[in-house]
Write a structure and sequence with these properties.
The protein is an alpha/beta fold and 228 residues long. It folds into two domains: 3-95 and 187-227, 2-Layer Sandwich (Nucleotidyltransferase, domain 5); 103-185, Nucleotidyltransferase, domain 5. The protein has helices spanning 39-50, 69-86, 95-101, 160-164, 166-173, 189-201, 220-227, and strands at residues 3-7, 12-18, 23-30, 59-65, 90-94, 109-117, 120-129, 132-142, 155-158, 177-179. Strands 3-2-1-4-5 form a five-stranded mixed β-sheet, sandwiched between helices. The protein has a five-stranded mixed β-sheet with strand order 8-7-6-9-10, sandwiched between helices. The chain is globular. The N and C termini lie far apart (50 Å).
Length: 228
């Protein structure tokens, strides 16, 4: 089974192709540019590097959120278009779960945090138990200090929000907090692809017509409409 995965949830953009046992190709960049400028070129590049065509793929994985509203829309619309054209299934993956999976070796509570801008973060909590990543809390958005207020055990923080608010996290939690190594704070498309693999194998895929970005927070347009 060959899966092409795309992440556009943050300022980084990642595309990968994996099969059941191997990473066939991966391309990750982090630029302050809209992902629409380079996403299709990256998809073509990983196919070329893997020596594959679209017809060789068995499905697509894509981050559904939370994350950048614009970024998520670009990634989802691109993958939905490719899935419809190729008649291949799609699986949506949580950006926070992907980050947690990248540090699933940790025996501590895993706390993925993404910058939500406007002085807020998206966050959740996970544990790696009996060989499986288990979500401990629902995904939320809140000011960064609220994301750590109730923590009283050793925690590993991961994600661009963990880097952005590193000083605050370490000050509030002291020796109970650790920050993931730099390379693990960027979502990798290969991580998402492997997270999606079990769902593909169970035919537990998403409805292409219904899969939507998971924003958690209302968009500015929605907030303005509520005020009018």
């Amino acid at each position: 089974m060959r899966i092409l995965a795309v992440d556009t949830a943050t300022t980084s953009c990642s595309v990968a192709i994996v099969d059941k046992t191997s990473l066939l190709s991966e391309f990750t960049i982090d630029r302050e540019e809209t992902h629409s400028k380079h996403l299709m070129d990256m998809i073509k590049a990983v196919l070329r590097m893997a020596g594959l065509n679209f017809s060789d793929l068995d499905g697509f994985a894509v981050t559904r959120g939370p994350g950048s509203f614009t970024g998520l829309r670009i990634g989802l619309s691109t993958i939905k278009g490719l899935a419809v054209a190729s008649e291949k299934p799609v699986v949506g993956v949580s950006s926070l779960e992907a980050l947690a999976f990248q540090v699933s070796y940790s025996r501590d509570l895993i706390c993925p945090i993404l910058d939500a801008r406007k002085g807020e973060v998206y966050f959740s909590r996970y544990r790696f138990l009996n060989g499986h990543l288990k979500k401990q809390t629902k995904e939320r958005v809140a000011p960064p200090d609220k994301a750590v207020d109730d923590l009283n055990e050793s925690c590993l923080f991961v994600g661009n929000g963990a880097l952005l608010y590193k000083e605050m996290i370490l000050e509030k939690m002291g020796g109970l907090a650790s920050i993931a190594p730099m390379i693990q704070n960027t979502i990798r498309a290969s991580t998402m692809a492997y997270l999606s693999m079990a769902k593909f194998e169970k035919n537990d895929t998403d409805d292409i017509e219904k899969i939507m970005p998971y924003y958690i927070r209302k968009s500015d347009a929605e907030l303005n409409l509520m005020k009018s």
